[in-house]
Amino acid sequence: MAETSRRDILRAGATMFAGVASGSLATPQTTQADVHDVNAVTSAQGNAECNFGHTILFMDEYFRDTLEILGRLHGEVEHVGELSARAASVIRNGKTVWTSMDEGHIAYYEHQASRRGNPGILKNHRKFDQLQKGDLVFTNYCNRSVLSARERGVYVVCVAVNYQNNEFRPAGFTDTTHSNPDGLMLKDVSNEILHTHVPYQQGLVHAPEIPEFVICPSSGTGSVALFWMINAEIVDKLTNPGAKPVDLSIRYLDTLTDRVQRIKPQRDRIREVAVRMARQIRDGGRWFVKSIEYKGFESEITHVASGPRIVNWGDWDATQEKNVLLVNAISPAHRPEVRLALEKQLEGAYVIGIGPQTLDGVRPAGRLIDIADVGFDNHSPESGGMIARAGHDGGICPTSGVVGNVIQQMICAQWVDEMVRRGSVPYFYMGNFQEGGAEYNEAMTAFFEHQGF
Question: What is this structure's pTM?
């Protein structure tokens, strides 16, 4: 029987959907690539192997474009300074500064008032009818409820993000489920607009064998970094009589950028991990990601737009000795996470740990990154955040969420690279916010489940 490739399916158009529904379409089979299975490859060797449509390792593309997002956020700092001054005035006048700029996965957890390091000055909300004249809101939404809030005297700052339609992307790209039925755009409902600089496609990696969309999500970088920049400036203006127009947002962004750049020396180890993962998953292993103390990491790589379908899918017990477990943490030795890592190691799984080396100067025994088969430092040693403020033990405005996520996405990106080199193309989720995304995901389910990755 002739094999059906992903490209064949795309060309088939409507026939694909009928075939999947009837069960008559042949499912794609994993092929054995005639390439050597490396354990560690130098950067030069790695790029020399890119002979099928790309000229950069996938992890390097993700890393490069993450730094581009952070670089572009420097263009927002003056605007953040102005808006933070207005927000501080709103608070001094007894009114409320609201936030619903948390569309996405990790952004939802990162923006919660309960997040360690959140100074608690922005109030989370979903409904707009509770917002009153004189309040200020930072929001991703664009609809009549937002417009009504502005018309009754709420100062509305819309924050552009990939999940909602706006005027900064090609017309027709966004699915109607993520568009405003009234046809309103951000400029129609807001007083001002901020940009996260997340690409409207969400992904950063252009995999030639997955031409349908860009993979490996990035909204967790732009949305989260901008949120903490805003918090940093508002806190400074509320607590520091001599606050500059712009100061702590730049300090936060510079520190975050430096910590992301410090991932680069770990890239060879990331590739070694990706090779090991590819080998085990091609042999039938499953890949699970857990983050017990802080759920944001797990959410940003499970059932996420531009993310891999394999994560947290399947029967762990069926292939225990071939499985991969990635544990991502904001503390060095959170007991439930360490116990989980040890338990799965005893079952034979390959365990990857991401987390800080220390917390507020304390280096605990039994750290996750020591227990794991391979550990990665997230360079975020504060329990709260990198900005010291009286009344906030451990500081405010954390970097651990962004840095930890960038590391796990780089691991994922390079895993795809290694899989493709060996003739095995994983399935990814197209964003439901993209036109046809939900239909694509439904159509690919049977193929993914048959292939297993």
Answer: 0.90
